[in-house]
């Protein structure tokens, strides 16, 4: 069983309102979202576009519900823009997270990303970095991670993601080898590894000592197969239901939880499963995910 004193459970607002596809859950309010998170038994939340930007306003709303901010996505452009541009925006982002009490920031390199392109098949046309770009990425991550940890007390965790330059196991391995463990950790996402046909268990086993944030995400293999065969975009796959909550797809979570338990993992595990709220009621799925995690981990 995982340690209740060390491991906290969160859920992402993307199940209620999708920032990349605003019509998905467009009718759901911030208040409904965080209230239902709390009702389902989660104490942590990542940040969505509908969340108040004012720290005190957001803190008050979350405190009423017993919820805290545990992370927020940040897009870097380290291989396509001057480093200084990314750092300037990063500082504002991390200052907000630090003010909210978060301990990690989830970073994804979005240069040449296809994840937001509606007409680009997610399994085709991915940018492959050359050696110079790899150096820019890894050195940039080290610099950002140093700023984040030493000046704000927030750990940089890197989010591998479909359609980005760091998607496959090989790419994650090169990124991890090229960065300083002191400043760069991994945001492990079970669903994104499974989506690109990598082994989530092998990856979490290899890097568990450098993982500071976990996304619990499952996939529906029949939908992912459809995405590949019909040359669908990443977002079209989301609409079609490629992702789902833990226990509702094909990812085996027992060994994942066991690796985390054996390593005495400390931090958040966050349910992140973007679906169409009209098809997958967010509260219903949140409660099912919470039940599944409780049964498997004792949390």
Automatic annotation (TrEMBL):
Keyword annotations: Cobalt, Lyase, Manganese
Organism: Lacrimispora algidixylanolytica
Cofactors, names only: glutathione; Co(2+); Mn(2+)
Family designation: Belongs to the IolE/MocC family.
GO molecular function annotation: manganese ion binding; myo-inosose-2 dehydratase activity
UniProt pathway annotation: Polyol metabolism; myo-inositol degradation into acetyl-CoA; acetyl-CoA from myo-inositol: step 2/7
Record keyword Manganese present: yes
Upper classification of the organism: Bacteria, Bacillati, Bacillota, Clostridia, Lachnospirales
EC numbers on record: 4.2.1.44
Domain named Xylose isomerase-like TIM barrel: residues: 38-292
Pfam families (UniProt xref): AP_endonuc_2
HAMAP family named in the record: IolE (MF_01672)
Coiled coil stretches, renumbered: none
Name this protein carries in UniProt: Inosose dehydratase
Catalysed reaction, written as an equation: scyllo-inosose = 3D-3,5/4-trihydroxycyclohexane-1,2-dione + H2O
Major enzyme class: lyase
A single BP term in Gene Ontology: inositol catabolic process
């Amino acid at each position: 069983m995982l340690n209740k004193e060390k491991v906290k459970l969160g859920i992402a607002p993307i199940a209620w309102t999708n920032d990349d596809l605003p019509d998905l859950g467009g009718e759901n309010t911030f208040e409904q979202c965080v209230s239902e998170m709390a009702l389902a038994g989660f104490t942590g939340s990542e940040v969505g576009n509908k969340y108040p930007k004012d720290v005190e306003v957001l803190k008050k709303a979350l405190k009423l519900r017993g919820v805290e901010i545990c992370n927020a996505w940040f897009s870097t452009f380290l291989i396509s823009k001057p480093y200084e541009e990314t750092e300037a925006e990063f500082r504002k982002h991390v200052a907000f997270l630090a003010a909210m009490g978060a301990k990690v920031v989830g970073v994804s390199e979005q240069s040449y990303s296809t994840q937001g392109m509606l007409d680009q098949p997610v399994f085709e046309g991915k940018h492959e970095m050359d050696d110079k770009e790899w150096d820019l990425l890894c050195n940039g991550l080290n610099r950002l991670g140093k700023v984040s940890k030493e000046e704000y007390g927030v750990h940089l965790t890197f989010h591998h993601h479909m359609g980005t330059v760091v998607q496959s196991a090989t790419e994650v391995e090169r990124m991890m080898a090229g960065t300083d463990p002191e400043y760069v950790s991994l945001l492990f996402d079970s669903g994104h590894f499974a989506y690109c046909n990598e082994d989530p268990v092998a990856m979490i086993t290899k890097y568990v000592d450098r993982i500071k944030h976990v996304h619990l995400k499952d996939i529906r293999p029949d939908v992912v197969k459809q995405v590949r065969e019909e040359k669908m975009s990443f977002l079209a796959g989301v609409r079609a239901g490629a992702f789902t909550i833990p226990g509702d797809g094909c990812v085996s979570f027992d060994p994942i939880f066991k690796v985390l338990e054996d390593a005495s993992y400390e931090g958040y595990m966050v349910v992140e499963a973007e679906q169409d709220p009209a098809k997958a009621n967010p509260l219903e799925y949140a409660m099912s995910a919470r039940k599944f995690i409780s049964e498997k981990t004792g949390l």
